[in-house]
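> example.struct
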């Protein structure tokens, strides 16, 4: 058996991947906001009575609010991140769009919590959590979208009633701190929905 070529190819592949990771340019990546308090009583509240939701988040974390887009790819969305800067959707060219975020240039310690009104798919009363507080312990595994740098993450379909349906999504990088993950869980648990 000749395993030498396979071993050499494997070692070269790992070396090239490690070299790419170390050489990538983080200068364009948004800055980490720093360690936040997990004490929910010190957090800010964001609410929208028209949509019927609210959530709490650490004051130093970044809040991004978006309405529905003109291509109907995205509904009302609130995103809370542990870095300073808005997420952007990838440019797919004219007439095309995606609800995915471009996460290719984020630092490896990122944490993203998203609450959205779904546009094309809605949770059913059989599949969604129907009461609060929500818990990441009951979240479903997400899908990786490699071309945009989106890790698997987790998601929770929320079905309060026929007119109040939502998706909660959480993504994090490989170097996210346990404190930031605890905060992400706290943000999800703080979410409330009016019916």
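> example.seq
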């Amino acid at each position: 058996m000749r395993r030498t070529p396979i071993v050499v190819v494997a070692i070269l592949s790992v070396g090239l991947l490690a070299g790419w990771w170390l050489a990538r340019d983080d200068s364009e990546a948004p800055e980490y906001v720093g360690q936040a308090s997990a004490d929910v009583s010190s957090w800010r509240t964001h609410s929208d009575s028209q949509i019927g939701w609210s959530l709490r988040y650490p004051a130093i974390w970044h809040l991004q609010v978006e309405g529905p887009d003109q291509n109907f790819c995205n509904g009302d969305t609130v995103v809370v991140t542990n870095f300073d800067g808005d997420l952007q959707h990838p440019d797919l060219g004219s007439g095309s769009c995606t609800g995915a975020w471009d996460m290719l240039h984020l630092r490896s310690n990122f944490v993203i919590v998203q609450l959205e009104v779904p546009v094309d798919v809605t949770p059913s009363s059989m599949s969604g959590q129907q009461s609060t507080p929500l818990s990441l312990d009951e979240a479903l595994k997400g899908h990786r979208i490699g071309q945009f740098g989106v890790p698997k993450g987790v998601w929770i379909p929320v079905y309060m009633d026929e007119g109040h349906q939502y998706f909660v999504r959480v993504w994090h990088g490989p170097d996210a701190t346990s404190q930031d993950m605890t905060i992400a869980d706290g943000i999800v648990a703080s979410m409330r929905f009016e019916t």
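> remarks
The longest helix spans residues 4-23.
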